[in-house]
Design brief:
Chains A, B: InterPro entries: Class_I_gatase-like, DJ-1/PfpI, INH-QAR. The structure is a homodimer. Chain A is of the alpha/beta class. The first copy, chain A, has helices at about 10-20, 70, 75-90, 100-105, 120-125, 150-165, 165-175, 190-195, and strands spanning about 30, 35-40, 45-50, 50, 60-65, 90-95, 110-115, 130, 140, 145. The first copy, chain A, has one domain: Rossmann fold (3-Layer(aba) Sandwich). The two termini of chain A are about 30 Å apart.
């Protein structure tokens, strides 16, 4: 999981709660520009395990969103590290405005992707070459899966768990968290709510 | 927000994502036995802002659950700090097995409360004097509100936001997170799923 200052906490800990339920089968690493303290605008503090340069080979990299993405899309070093991670990792996922960061690297060009519907105009302005899908809870295109805003990351995480470990395991993880999984990627009321068509 | 080693991350950052959306009106403090690093079994690290002894006067204290509660119900110092916080804070909330910790302090005795349905037997064994409610997404009794497992904390957080700032604000917070708020506290499919009656 990639971290940066002012990430959205539910983008990160929603999916990590789902993967964390499988702690005998899943190992989680948090990765940032520098190892150490990460903070959010609401005053919370976190610890990133390793710097980008020290990231282990991953099976899946997740890029979250949050207000910090407004800063990171102008951080060339951050973008280059993200692009490299996307290139070398077999599975790539974005939550919310995390897709804006990945789009800005150019790596999403020609691929289908979705993102937060409230921030749609800003996100899609990061690259006109991405095939943006406005009405979707999440979108899979090859090795990249992108989810819509904030809580959609949990539904996508369960989809990725189902892909890897089977639907029964994903359902067990959802029930353990008493979480009602929206398992249909087309079920997205937030597109219309934000004036976006299909 | 109370933290301890091996807390469940969604119990904490689900509600804090909701409250954090109102960062101009809400200030968040994380409180633990000692200020500093907190870790979880899945290998994640966090920073607690202050020790119990240095906690500011709060409007609301939230006690999360997670596997660490199995240890903390036997930690007399922790229980005493939790009981003190519950006594001096105008609003008290628990998420998931956080109710087990509060029950063990005795402070919940004679009050109605709910908790995680998968861990029901262990939770309710912490005090026979609590009026445990098996079928509920959350339960309000006077100044204490307890929620069911993990993701139920988000629905309770939105309920508490609605109480304090109005339903329109709570709905805005839910929509911002693209979160489908279960706003009916009686809507709980997890009781029956775990063999619990009404």
């Amino acid at each position: 999981m990639v971290l940066f200052d002012d990430f959205e906490v539910l983008d990160v800990y929603g999916p990590l709660s789902m993967f964390g339920a499988l702690k005998d089968r899943v190992q989680i690493t948090t990765i940032a520009e520098k190892a150490g303290t990460i903070t959010t605008a609401s005053g919370l503090s976190f610890v990133a395990d390793v710097a980008f340069a020290d990231a282990p080979q991953l099976d899946l990299v997740i890029i979250p969103g949050g207000m910090g993405t407004r800063r990171e899309v102008n951080n060339a070093q951050f973008l280059s590290a993200i692009r490299h991670l996307a290139e070398v990792t077999p599975q790539v996922a974005t939550v919310c405005t995390g897709a804006a960061v990945l789009a800005k690297t150019g790596w999403l060009d020609g691929k289908r992707a979705t993102s937060n519907k409230m921030a749609w105009k800003w996100v899609t302005a990061q690259s006109a070459k991405v095939l943006w899908v406005p009405k979707a809870r999440w979108v899979e295109d090859g090795k990249v899966t992108s989810s819509s805003g904030v809580s959609a990351g949990m539904d996508m995480a369960l989809f990725l768990i189902a892909k890897r470990f089977g639907k029964e395991t994903a359902t067990w993880v959802a029930n353990r968290a008493e979480y009602r999984w929206y398992d249909n990627p087309a079920d997205d009321p937030y597109a219309a709510m934000n004036g976006l068509g299909a």
